[in-house]
Amino acid sequence: MAAALGDEDIDNDDYYSLLNVRREATQEELKASYRRLCMLYHPDKHRDPELKRQAEQLFNLVHQAYEVLSDPQSRAIYDIYGKRGLEVEGWEVVERKRSPAEIREEFERLQRERDERRLQQRTNPKGTISVGVDATDLFDRYEEDYEDLPGGGFPQIEINKMHISQSIEAPLTTTDTAILSGSLSTQNGNGGGNINLALRRVTSTKGWGEVEFGAGDTHGPLFGMKLFRNLTPRCFVTTQCGLQFSSRGVRPGLTTVLARHLDKNTMGYLQWRWGTQSAMNTSIVRDTKTSHFTFALQLGIPHSFMMLSYQYKFQDEDQTRIKGSVKTGFFGTVVEYGAERKISRHSVLGATVSVGVPQGVSLKIKLNRASQNYFFPIHLTDQLLPSAVFYATVGPLVFYLAMHRLVIKPYMRAQKEEELEKHRESAATDIARRKQEAESAVRLMQESVRRIIEAEESRMGLIILNAWYGKFVTDNSRRHERAKVIDVTVPLQCLVKDSKLILTEASKAGLPGFYDPCLGEEKSLKVLYQFRGVMHQVLSGDTEALRIPKQSHRIDADT
Question: How far apart are CA 367 and CA 393, in angstroms?
Fold first, then answer.
């Protein structure tokens, strides 16, 4: 349900950062921080009309933050859903709950009507386009047979099959969904298609049922049913039966799958299929953060086989994966290996080399774009030729590296900059408001800061000499970039108490007197301060906790 709030504008108000308290802060800590800020921003302390107006705005903001965080129910809502959660109508009639889990339950109840309205507007389109390419002429042809033919010097590459399928979901109610799907296929000049309509109903939290109707020019009408049921929290069963009507009569079919969680990351499956291709299959699937392993064994007509596959997941930004599998049975033996990688926010590109007896060598290229899949199986040779295996392995790799360097990487960089610029433009009003609030806060802090500095100087305490917040450019390779920082010396000095400065683990952009000078970019806080007459310096990340003074911040005399 939290995702439902993601469609709204981003909420940047961080009440914890504004009060400079931990997210686990006690009522006493909240009250102490609130009183300190009230003394700083109280309108009655300022005679100038403009300063009085600015102080009133900041005082109200601090008061609002304290009211939310000091109330257990409002704080639970804010912690789960942010400020947007507090704006949902209906909280005034909700019984005051104790735990965040109960708050979440009430929030979901209040959002149910809103979700039902959105349900009518949502579909879940899925599609697959597969184009089979016959490129055996690249490796299997005899040169002397083509010398006298026009264009005989060029290998013939043909598209020998194609398949297109598409489906959409139309939610009817919160429990009923209609699914419309269709497909078209063609191979070597012969083709056909079919269309299916399925109605699915969620009967309870433990199961659902589905009825399917279909028609096509190759197999005739189809009627089927599918049932899903959770037997226990660790075990479920799926049963599917169907009647296929054709000119040869009625062909019934039945498939049953029993699955069980063997442990946190491992599933075991037992499948029984009866019909035109009867078989029994058992498999074990283990999926962890870094790997995916599958073992399957099937006994059936016409195919019996054993399959073993392994996939390793790199923990990088591009979600790179390498995989390999071995499958052997009555049809022969096939070895496959490949890799896939994320090339954009919604796109994943993969390539797999298949080497088998008697299948030969094939290269399979796959592109996933959101919920659309594009598949290009390229058959290279019917024989096990080392040259075909080499080119199928090295060719896609070289092509990808060249495309990644010359096209994908520059495109992604330009897209990221464009999105960042759009984000800045959309948030320009909010940034200007926060900048104005920060400047007003700094003006209101001047008198308090003067008193704090006098007190700290009298005891040789903590004096903030200079402080900057924003994006610093320290890498020589990025010297062409411009630093984007703001002076936060006054706001930091205002937070000094008893010769100590403590900042919590939250974005410092929400602190009084701060604002975000470079939206969407990495930020740091750099502080040059004096303690007991000695110079100190520290550079802290935006969300890192900071506690000064510290001995490790001391600047040596030789520096």
Answer: 17
The answer to whether the CB of 171 falls within 8 A of the CB of 177 is: yes
Helix/strand/coil for 374: strand
Which of 72, 129, 158 is closest to 366 using CA atoms? Answer: 129
Q: Which helix (H) or strand (E) holds 280?
A: strand 279-287
Query: What pLDDT is attached to residue 538?
Result: 92
Cα separation, 371 vs 140, whole angstroms: 37
What are the CA-CA distances from residue 286 to residues 206, 228, 236, 324, 334 (Å)?
24, 22, 17, 15, 22
Question: Lowest-pLDDT range, 63-67, 144-148, 516-520?
Answer: 144-148
Whether the pLDDT of residue 95 is over 60: the answer is no
Q: Kindly list the distances between the CA atom of residue 205 and the CA atoms of 209, 221, 269, 328, 390, in Å, as whole numbers in the listed order.
A: 12, 32, 22, 40, 52
Q: How many residues does the chain have?
A: 559
Question: Considering only 10-14, 202-206, 501-505, which range has the smallest mean pLDDT?
Answer: 10-14
- Count the Cβ atoms, other than its own, within 10 Å of residue 469: 28
pLDDT of residue 201: 93
Peptide bond into 358 cis (omega under 30): yes
The CB density around residue 174, as the number of other CB atoms within 10 Å, is 11
Question: Is the pLDDT reported for residue 96 higher than 70?
Answer: no
Count of Cβ atoms closer than 10 Å to residue 162 Cβ: 14
Give residue for tokens 């009060």.
19
Residue 446, class by beta-carbon neighbours within 10 Å (0-12 exposed, 13-18 middle, 19+ buried)?
A: exposed
Which tokens is 528 given? Answer: 């040059």
Residue 194 CB-half CA count within 13 A: 14
* 114 SS3 class: helix
Q: What's CA 119's distance to the chain center, in Å?
A: 22
Residue 256: strand pairing partners: 239, 272
Distance CA 420, CA 484 (A): 15
